[in-house]
Amino acid sequence: SAISPAFSPSSKTVKEGNNNDDTKLRNGSPTVRHLNATFSDLPAPHWDWEEMPPAPVPRLDGASVQIGDLLYVVAGYGSLDHVHSHVDVYNFTSNTWTGRFDMPKKMSNSHLGMASDGRYIYAVSGQFGPQCRPAVSRNFVLDTKLRKWDELPPLPVPRYAPATQLWRGRLHVMGGGKEDRHEPGLEHWSLAVKNGKALENEWRAEIPIPRGGPHRACVVANDKLFVIGGQEGDFMPKPGSPIFKCARRHEVVYGDVYMLDNEAKWKQLSPMPKPDSHIEFAWVVVNNSIVIVGGTTEKHPITKKMILVGEVFRFDLETLVCSILYVNYFACSY
C-alpha cells in the first residue's frame, strides 16, 4: 500500500438521528453538530473502511465488550445533559443491531471499567448521572446468557474510567480518576471472581501502577497484564454548580506502556508512537498483537479543541514494541 501523507481535516458535519427520547431536537429538526475530524500526522499505509449500520443512539464515554459474534455496548452520554441506562447489542454475523435491555438503576452511566470472561461482563465503578457528577464505587456483573444482573462488592473508593481486566482468576482495577475527577489515582485492587460471583467480600490491595489516570487500554495477553496510554486530568464539576456542570481543566495525554508479569513488578516498556487516550474499549488481540484504533491525543495548542487520533497502532507481543499499522481518517474510540 502507498504511504499516506499527513492529513488534518478540520471538521465533519453530522445530523443526529431521528425523533426519539435519545435525540435532541431543535424546533422539530435534528440537531446539527460540527465534529472534529481525525488527525493523522504519522506516515503509514492507508486501508479502506467499510461503513457498518449506525448505532441506535449516539454515545460518548460508554463501554463495550465483544462475546462471540455479539458486541454489547453499555451506557454512555447521549449529550452532556443526558446519559443512557441501557445496553445495545450488535450481531456481527447478521451485521444488525439486534437487541436492547436495561441496566440496573444504580449502575454508573459513563466512565465504567469493564471486562469479560466470555460469558459474564464485569462493570466497575464510574460516573452516575450526566455532566460531571460524582463517581460511585458500586460494581455489577451481567450474565449475558440469562441477561441477568447481580451486584459485586464495592470498590474501596470510587474511580472514573479505571483500567479493568480479568487476570489469573481475579478482577483487577487500577488507576482511573480520583473522586475530584481530575487527580489521577495510582491504587490497584483485585477481587477473586468465578462464574460471575465474587469469591471474597473485600478487594485486595495490589502493587500500585507507576502512573495513574483514566481512559487506558488494559489487556491480558500471554499471561501478562498490559496497561497502555491514558491521561492525567479531566473535566471537573464547576464549583458550586447544582448540576455539577463540567468545566475544562488541564489534561496531559500520554503514550506510556506498562506490563505486569510473574515478578509482580511493573515494567515500563517503549511508549506508543504518539500520546493516546480514551482507548479502553478500542483494542483487540489478533496475531500475537494488540491492535489499538483511534483515541484522543493532546488538544490543539491554539483552539484547545479535542483532536481525535487518525492512526491505528499495533503493539507486538513478541518484541513489546508499538508501531503504526495504517492511517484511519474517520475513526474515533468512543
TrEMBL record:
<dbReference type="InterPro" id="IPR053256">
    <property type="entry name" value="Kelch_repeat-containing"/>
</dbReference>
<feature type="compositionally biased region" description="Polar residues">
    <location>
        <begin position="1"/>
        <end position="12"/>
    </location>
</feature>
<dbReference type="Pfam" id="PF24681">
    <property type="entry name" value="Kelch_KLHDC2_KLHL20_DRC7"/>
</dbReference>
<protein>
    <recommendedName>
        <fullName>Kelch repeat-containing protein</fullName>
    </recommendedName>
</protein>
<feature type="region of interest" description="Disordered">
    <location>
        <begin position="1"/>
        <end position="31"/>
    </location>
</feature>
<dbReference type="InterPro" id="IPR015915">
    <property type="entry name" value="Kelch-typ_b-propeller"/>
</dbReference>
